[in-house]
Automatic annotation (TrEMBL):
Species of the source: Gymnopus androsaceus JB14
Name under which the protein is recorded: Uncharacterized protein
Residues in the signal sequence: 1-18
Keywords: Signal
Domain of life: Eukaryota
Length: 151
């Protein structure tokens, strides 16, 4: 795809809560759940991202990106974002996939009590300019605890 103009805009929404029978504005970038929660390092984690409300509210995703982030307030400066999934938008509106985090990754072993958030970044096309598509991004933040299988 060729874009005459490409503009990246970021916005972060509050975490989405349980889906009701109407679409809350906070669900415009997706509803994310995962199991088990807390995440157990070294064991498979199944993520379930629903974009039904995103689509209904006019934010149909093109790409979705998932990172595990230590918030700036808690970050030593040596805890980079862990980029664990890049997904094309699911045609069905729901994307279920499994990830196993390496318990021996140095960041997990060096900072075993670190505080994390999962950021789901949803990229969608804004329909504002006459040149064509402008891709913009929004996201949801979900606080998460990581534990070791032996704990
Ligand atoms: C994923 O979550 C949706 C609700 O957002 C639910 O309807 C669906 O059954 C879930 N799918 C799986 C495989 O857990
Ligand atoms: C993270 O930072 C916040 C704000 O400084 C602080 O209140 C909280 O206790 C910190 N949590 C951890 C686990 O360091
Ligand atoms: C992590 O490292 C320990 C010690 O080297 C090893 O026994 C263990 O099998 C490793 N875990 C995985 C999941 O590779």
């Amino acid at each position: 795809m060729l874009f005459k103009s490409l503009l990246a805009v970021s916005a972060l929404a509050a975490p989405a809560f349980a889906q009701l029978d109407f679409c809350a504005e906070a669900a415009r970038f997706g509803d994310l759940t995962f199991s088990p929660n807390p995440i157990v390092l070294g064991e498979p984690v199944t993520f379930n991202a629903s974009f039904a409300c995103a689509i209904e509210l006019g934010y149909t995703p093109v790409y979705t990106d998932y990172t595990l982030v230590v918030p700036a307030a808690n970050n030593t400066g040596f805890q980079p974002d862990i980029y664990f999934a890049r997904r094309d938008a699911p045609a069905s509106g729901t994307d279920v996939f499994t990830v196993t985090f390496d318990p021996n990754y140095s960041q997990f072993t060096t900072y075993p009590n670190a505080q994390y958030e999962i950021i789901l970044t949803t990229t969608h096309a804004a329909t504002t300019d006459s040149f064509g598509e402008t891709l913009v991004q929004g996201g949801t933040i979900t606080p998460v605890t990581l534990i070791l299988a032996s704990n």
